[in-house]
Specification:
With 197 residues, the protein is an all-alpha fold. The protein contains eleven helices and no strands. The chain has a single domain, classed as Tetracycline Repressor, domain 2 (Orthogonal Bundle). It is 80% helix and 0% strand. The N and C termini lie far apart (61 Å).
Length: 197
């Protein structure tokens, strides 16, 4: 029975994600990805037309996973009737997963790609923007439900959640201490609790 090649494509993307996250897009060669995946040039070029195409597909997959992570967090608190409690518990959901987030990845692929946006291709940055806007829109809804009419800049408050994640990744990588992710999310939760009470 012929294979559809999905497993090979996933293996190549997984290898590329590890390498790009650790070394950057420019410093990651097609040959390194092939070697890391235990694959071949023929298989690589069957799935990706170029390194740029690989970068764009890699970011699209990462962004889709990022948005699914958001929706999983929203689903985890959807049953809570009090919108203030729902907002706080949304942040607590990720705080509780801080160690898991860091054990799954040492850095954010977005940072690696955005610092080299001219190399990764325009579709890559578009996928990142789409994910960022989705996070912002959903969190603004949580904030509006919790705060009602307010003079606060809800877009900026919502973006602060994204900034906390990205900043925590950088802090963890700089210090070598993955505990910073959980601690920064805990600090964010304390701020959100103060905001809603």
């Amino acid at each position: 029975m012929p294979r559809d090649g999905t497993a090979t494509r996933i293996r190549l993307l997984d290898a590329a994600e590890r390498l790009v996250t650790d070394n950057g897009f420019a410093a990651t060669s097609v040959d390194q990805v092939i070697a890391e995946a235990g694959s071949s040039k023929g298989a690589f070029f069957h799935h990706f037309s170029s390194k740029t195409d690989l970068g764009e597909q890699l970011v699209e997959r990462y962004a889709a996973h990022d948005v699914q992570t958001l929706y999983d967090g929203l689903a985890a608190v959807a049953h809570l009737e009090d919108p203030k409690v729902r907002l706080v518990e949304f942040v607590r959901h990720f705080e509780g997963r801080g160690d898991e987030i860091m054990s799954a990845q040492s850095n954010c692929l977005y940072v690696s790609v955005l610092t080299e946006r001219q190399l990764a291709g325009p579709d890559a940055t578009g996928a990142i923007l789409g994910a960022v806007v989705t996070w912002r829109d959903e969190i603004v809804t949580l904030l509006r439900d919790a705060l009602g009419d307010t003079d606060h800049d809800l877009d900026a408050l919502a973006d602060h959640v994204f900034v906390t994640f990205e900043g925590a990744f950088i802090l963890c990588r700089t210090t070598g201490d993955p505990d910073h992710m959980r601690r920064q999310l805990a600090a964010l939760r304390v701020l959100v609790e103060a905001l809603v009470h």
